[in-house]
Amino acid sequence: MGILWHAHPGSPYVFGLAGVDHDLDFPEPMPVVGISRSARGYCIVSVLETMKTYSSEDGLTEEALVTKLRTCRYHHLFLHASLRHNSSGTCRWGEYGEGGLLWGECRARHFEWFEGDPVTELLLKVRELYGFDSEVTFRNVTVPSESRPHPLHLGTATQIGAIPTEGIPCLLRVLLPLNCTGLPVLYMRDLLLNPPAYEIASIIQVTCKLMGNITSSIPEFTCVSSAKLVKLLELREANHIEFCRIKNVLDEILHMYKNSELNEILKSLMDPTWVATGLKIEFETLVSECDWASGRICEMISLDCESDQKLSSYSAIPSEFFEDMESLWKGRVKRVHIEEEFAEVGRAASALSSAVAEDFLPIISRIKATTAPLGGPKGEILYAREHEAVWFKGRRFAPSVWAGTPGEEQIKQLKPAVDSKGRKVGEEWFTTIKVEDALRRYHGASEKAKARVLELLRGLSAELQTKINILVFASMLLVIAKALFSHVSEGRRRKWVFPTLVSFDKSKDINLLDGDNGMKLVGLVPYWLDAAEGNAVHNTVDMQSLILLTGPNGGGKSSLLRSICASALLGICGFMVPAESAIIPHFDSVMLHMKSYDSPADGKSSFQVEMSEIRSLLDGASSKSLVLIDEICRGTETAKGTCIAGSIVETLDKIGCLGIISTHLHGIFDLPLDTKNIVYKSMGTEHVNGQTKPTWRLRDGICRESLAFQTAKREGISERIIQRAEDLYHSAYAEQASPERQFCTSDPSREPISESLRDNSESAIKTENLVNKDVETAISMICKKKLVEIYKKKNILEPTVLQCVPIGAREQPPPSTIGVSCVYVMLRPDKRLYVGVSDDLEGRVRSHRSKEGMQNASFLCFVVQGKSLACQLETLLINQLPRKGFHLSNVADGKHRNFGTTNISIETATVH
């Protein structure tokens, strides 16, 4: 049966490779891809004509499908008719809603439409494309994927560098040492993009742990492309170099089998190799077949250590001639199989040497014996590589007078050398009939030997082709082994750890936060920083529900989300993670959405792109998912963006997934959200040399400060612009907030402020008294609630009542505040509050009132024993008063010690 083979970038031209002595750089095969849509989602069918295999994966999201298209160079693309209709009910595919991302990916490429059953029809298309007849069969390598996590979304894959992306730290680059390239890297990438089922991930982790404890030496792990193996053996074009490489693969499998430590690793790699190849092979079958194939190659192929096939060598003939002629077949198969041909070439080489010696050497001797000035006779025996001949090359060597001297007879026998077409080669090239006859005999013997060697090599290809599944399985197993050994080596160098991988308990309600299904990362560092060098900030993330994350610009929110996403993905793949310890559930999907940019080619704004990505994210989220969203709804106006963000938070809270949503939309905390399990976290800062700097550490609580002005200044924006921005900010903030909004509270436990506060006809004194009373009530509620909790823990039955002391506009603090720690709240004329602490309250009041516009500021204060407790209550009030409806002029304590923290531990102390 003749097969018409097509050469293309994924399946290069290999005809004649068996007869050469060099290797072929064989790329990964390029499949024919078909995309369709079903009730479960998108489906992709991939057919590899080189491997004669196909696979089908259903239930994909649009994002995951586009990720697969981005990471696979396909030869032909077919789109099923089921894609013509989108969610808008029209045939204008991709214009509205779902399908837009896929349409944008496909419309810039050449594709064809097809109908019918996707698998059946695509296989027919492949047969037509490559000229295969019906007898050519394709093997289904689809591995059941019901329990596998969803493939990575495009945004997630690019934002953590699973798909190398400019400006994004590349996860692949830190998983393996820099000297590990090629097939192991591709395996790691494919596993990250398509995480394995829990059972396989657990096996990979166990295997990696075994690898980390190996005390014996390990093989080199020869990596051979499965596609290259299949094509070369099927076309009978494998040369001796490839057979030696195949034998190395087989021998390394056998070496692992015979070593007690490596034997366990070999066994544990069987299932991951099954997932990667779609081939289910028994362990003993693998070993026995590898042993047979290795032995068969050993019987036929001349190995590097054998030296019984030396090239012919004669002093009269240039050595390059024999090197070129005999290296094409000598040293490829064992001499015992070509003994007759070997002997005939030897005899022909000897005859050629004799002919050259008899016909050319006397002439050479004559020329050397002649002493003549410049311009005398020249002559030498040379190898004419282009013509594969050994000829005499000379000039002015014929005697002017023939006197029967030595060499004259040989000169008379010379004739002009001609090429294969009978054309004269040149004026200086000569040969003889005897030499030409000897050359023809030698070339004939060499061609016969070469043909016999090729026959034996092709026969061995035919034999091994019957074991192609074993060879493919063995080669893939070694690729996986090298990838995992390299990963363990690099992980240990970076001081990464193996996480505790937890399977979701199906017998329990996932929404019950009992800790069994939470994720905890202790000492987490960004994956792109080398913890071994000590230059990374460590964070602890204990995630039992959805977290709402706030923090200043440059505070590390995006880095934290990217690090958590990468760690979770590495964990569910069975790999090491950049932490000191970790507990990671085996999520059914890991999704990360970060900042979106507009897509002019698709006619979409950045907010449209963001909504499209979040829609895909929400569609794929379940109670077993990890969802990470950075700076949600940043691309639209604040008010409506805040409400959309709040609704998305509610939706994810109801789904019950784990995740983090970071935001600068602080208005979200004022929305009446219907949530049950939201936890508030923030990124901390510290005050160093008069500058507020991020600590990049995760802390409890809410942070309402963005440090936008500081960030802009740090990036080179002029002081004049920053100062004007601050003035505009304070002006707009004061103007947009009416008095009742400044000091009212949405807390239902409080009575509404008296209507007299809203009556502009009332006196300023009465208004001030009402405001003081309202603030005092809020202070008492906030501090008393916290202090009661502490006293209960310390078994103190009667906690002291907290008593606020008002200080009027032209009043001073009482003597009882002298020399003790006080917490105070200043009621500024612009209706905003300032919270502070001081051991010299009188001096602090005087300092505040010395500033412009603050001469009539009033205060509320209470005394606390101990500066530590005072500072902690200060931070508590800074974070809690805004949640009661009050507006503050300061959003951090005086020295930024407890910036963004609400869940603090207050020491036992007496409050007066």
Protein topology:
Elements: E1 32-38, E2 41-48, E3 53-60, H1 62-71, E4 76-80, H2 100-106, E5 112-114, H3 118-130, E6 139-140, H4 154-159, H5 171-175, H6 183-193, H7 198-212, H8 226-234, H9 240-258, H10 260-268, H11 270-277, H12 283-300, H13 319-326, H14 339-369, E7 378-384, E8 389-395, H15 408-413, E9 415-416, E10 429-431, H16 433-465, H17 468-493, E11 500-502, E12 519-524, E13 539-543, E14 546-550, H18 557-573, E15 581-585, E16 589-593, H19 606-620, E17 625-629, H20 638-655, E18 658-662, E19 679-688, E20 691-700, H21 708-714, H22 719-736, H23 739-743, H24 764-793, E21 805-807, E22 818-827, E23 833-840, H25 841-849, E24 858-864, H26 867-880
Helix pairs in contact: 6-17, 7-10, 7-17, 8-16, 8-17, 9-10, 9-12, 9-17, 11-17, 12-16, 14-16, 21-22
